[in-house]
Amino acid sequence: MGCQSCVIGEIYFEVKMEGQYNSKILERITSYLENHHSSIDQNNNTWKIKETVLKELFDFSKDMMDQRDIYFRIESEQNWKSFHEAEAIFEQQWIDDVIKNELITFFFQPIITAKKEIFAYEMLARFRDEEGKIVSPSNIFRAAKERGRLYALDRVCRLNAIKASRAVDEKVFINFIPTSIYSPEYCLKSTVNLANSLGLNPSKFVFEVVETEKVDDIDHLKSILTFYKEKGFQYALDDVGEGYSTINLLADLKPHYMKLDLKYVQGVAETVEKQRVAEKFLKKALEIGSIPLAEGIENKEDFEWLKDIGYQLFQGYYFGKPSPKPLKYV
């Protein structure tokens, strides 16, 4: 994946033609595209083209070609897709404007100590479209993934979160997606430079791995976390549960904070199985020198139970919902 992935620019696609019918008219179509577009790179039955050309080819292929034998992929991606799926990418073009114009704001949710003192804030991105309407994060990330914009989205969120963090003196937890960082030295350089230029101490920031249990490339994750640590930042593992906390790799990752998945938090005061997981998680966190944090707390009973067995940090609606203005006390 090239450096252009971190910014919003023209998307290039690879398209390949197969099938007897398409082969018969391949030369004629190639000639047309080369005469009308200068950005055609052909290699046998495969083309490298811009999105504008892809749209034209897509419309043409509906009537003149057999779409079942045409495949495409965003340049440098591994998997080929059926050509009819290209229409979904065209429909998600709005995400480019969201990223390019940085239509992002941040809400703050408090993370508290056992004494109900504010220790930090998790910074949660909220998005709006060009008309100012709120767009759900799930739609944002789905559209970004569809168009190959996760790199650019993650970067703009990370940088804007650092800017917004100036509103508080406490630590801030900032989410990031490991798969959206292909080279820590390159992708995170702007993060380090921005924090330095704003005079912010790296120890203020805790970068939180989103969906820890879904990380497949542990070595890549370790390289990212090592980079953060070397630059003075801290990191947390999010949504850690029974499956992930039992593997020995946690000892290698050595996160500064481990967040117990809310599905083991909510109702823990009354559920023996959740208590077992919470206790096992706590033991593992303390064993590797990580601070245990319980997220998703919605009632006093769960908070008191987790506090009594030794959890140190807490987060959830019971203490405060995400807010555009950070709460100063709970």
Automatic annotation (TrEMBL):
SMART domains: EAL
Molecular function per GO: cyclic-guanylate-specific phosphodiesterase activity
Alphabetical list of Gene3D superfamilies matching this protein: EAL domain (3.20.20.450)
EAL domain: residues covered: 87-330
Spans through the membrane: none
InterPro entries on file: Cyclic-di-GMP_PDE-like, EAL_dom, EAL_sf
Protein's name in the database: Diguanylate phosphodiesterase
Source organism: Sutcliffiella cohnii
Organism taxonomic ancestry: Bacteria, Bacillati, Bacillota, Bacilli, Bacillales
